[in-house]
Design goal:
α8 runs antiparallel to α9 (about 190-200) and α9 (about 190-200) packs parallel to α11. The longest helix has 25 residues, at about 125-150. Helix content is about 65%, strand content about 5%. A hairpin with a 4-residue loop joins β2 (about 410) and β3 (about 415-420). By secondary structure, the chain is an all-alpha fold. The chain folds into three domains: about 5-230; about 230-345, no CATH class; about 360-420, Arc Repressor Mutant, subunit A (Orthogonal Bundle), CATH 1.10.10. The protein has a three-stranded antiparallel beta sheet. The radius of gyration is 29 Å and the shape is elongated. The protein starts with a helix and ends in an 11-residue tail after the last strand. Belongs to the CSN12 family. InterPro entries: Csn12-like, PCI_dom, WH-like_DNA-bd_sf. It comes from Ascobolus immersus RN42.
Length: about 425
């Protein structure tokens, strides 16, 4: 087991060098000394032991005042409790996530007080990021324990809702800072906004994300330029903003944000690219009727598995295959919140059925097509007997195609015909 004293030495070194990112690593469960921290003291002796370890020279260095030093002792005392709950809680069995959340909540409040009341500088913002990220993750684990204990009750996210309130305070502290930009905590607003978005998505309270967006827009003139923020802050913010528009069926706006997120994404980050494309692909299908090539999908195995069957069926106008592929992946598509958008792709699939039927006509004048001809085409492509395809439903489908701009022409009802435009009667994605 790694020596827990490395935690405190790392704190002193990072604080002395004013390296917030290094200090933040000390306060994460992935630090190699996190487990040993649980054995470094007892709950009764923690404050005395932590003070001795943090400031062995009996002064406040690298801090400047006793108040500043005491604030960090409180933070590490709560961090010790987090480690103790995870490593030694439950009577020594560990993984006491409820106790861990209580301690993590206390730790977060100490950090918030440091920024709000003690004037912590903005180089410590990575500490705020790490603490709020850990708070959210531990809250989810604690809620899973509560749900498992009472399976007969509706699922609740009690701890995560509490965490959301603390993260919102952190976001407000960053957004409301009045220091000069070079010293401002406003540099943390987009990172904190992303944590808020993740939390609200998990709580299925996506409408609350718009409050965060409104708050940012209201302060936009006082914020640094968006392009000046780190790419690691911008990409997640663009992704979640695109997601919010996507779920509102505002596909043009969603495509703009998701496309920007994809372009800014690190070329080696296949996982993040996959997350973005999971929604950008159906978004472009809905807004532009655009379908990625199979070669493109093969670069992302998860997307190829999830989407290729549906998209191939759309492209080739195979209604039966489309319905089967959509049904086979329904659970996963619903979970990813893309099922309803992909389901709209059936219209494009149907358009391609009609176009293929039209192209295969053996007649000189292809501007006049009997509705019965399209009825037969739909039956063949859907694997349905012709007699089971209602002619009136086909006429209704054709009317909708024309109304939605997928066909150019009009219905000659009395003659049972569709009169198509002589030029590009099926605008949109080429076959």
């Amino acid at each position: 087991m790694a020596d827990y004293r490395l935690v405190y030495r790392s704190f002193r070194d990072a604080y002395h060098q004013r390296r917030g990112s290094l200090l933040a690593k000390v306060l994460t469960p992935t630090h190699p000394c996190f487990s040993s921290l649980a054995w470094s003291a007892t709950p009764n002796s923690k404050l005395r032991d932590i003070w001795t370890e943090l400031f062995p020279n009996r002064n406040y260095a690298p801090c400047y005042t006793e108040t500043e030093a005491k604030g960090w002792v409180d933070v590490f005392a709560a961090w010790f409790e987090v480690s103790y709950a995870i490593e030694r809680g439950n009577g020594g069995r560990g993984r006491d996530w409820e106790k861990a959340y209580e301690a993590m909540s206390e730790m977060t409040q100490h950090v918030l007080r440091g920024f709000q009341n003690s004037g912590w500088p903005n180089w410590l913002l990575p500490v705020l990021y790490a603490v709020c990220t850990n708070l959210r993750l531990i809250a989810i684990k604690a809620d899973h324990v509560l749900v498992a204990r009472t399976p007969d009750k509706p699922e609740k996210w009690e701890k995560l809702e509490d965490a959301a309130r603390l993260v919102n305070r952190a976001f407000t502290i960053c957004l409301g800072d009045r220091a000069a930009l070079e010293d401002s905590k406003k540099w943390g607003v987009y990172f904190m906004a992303t944590i808020m978005f993740k939390t609200y998505f998990k709580l299925n309270q996506i409408s609350l994300c718009k409050n965060v967006q409104r708050a940012l827009n209201a302060q936009k003139s006082d914020l640094p330029s968006f392009d000046d923020f780190p790419r690691s802050h911008r990409v997640p913010y663009l992704y979640f903003t695109g997601m919010i528009y996507f779920l509102d069926s505002k596909y043009a706006e969603a495509e703009t944000y998701l496309s920007d997120a994809y372009r800014m994404c690190h070329p080696d980050s296949i996982h993040n690219q996959t997350l973005i494309l999971t929604h950008l692909i159906p978004c472009r299908l809905a807004s532009q009727r655009a379908i990625p090539s199979e070669a493109f999908l093969r670069k992302y195995p998860d997307l190829h598995r999830l989407y290729f069957g549906v998209l191939s069926a759309i492209q080739h106008g195979r209604l039966k295959e489309f319905d089967e592929a959509l049904e086979a992946s329904e659970d996963e598509l619903v979970k990813k919140r893309v099922f309803l958008t992909l389901e709209r792709g059936r219209q494009i699939c149907l358009r391609n059925v009609l176009r293929k039927t039209w192209r295969n006509l053996e007649q000189d004048d292809k501007t006049k097509v009997h509705i019965e001809t399209f009825r037969i085409g739909i039956a063949l492509r859907s694997g349905t007997p012709v007699q089971d395809v209602d002619i009136e439903e086909v006429e209704c489908l054709l009317t909708n195609m024309i109304a939605n701009g997928l066909m150019k022409g009009y219905i000659a009802h009395e003659r049972g015909m569709v009169v198509l435009s002589a030029k590009d009667p099926f605008p949109g994605t080429p076959l």
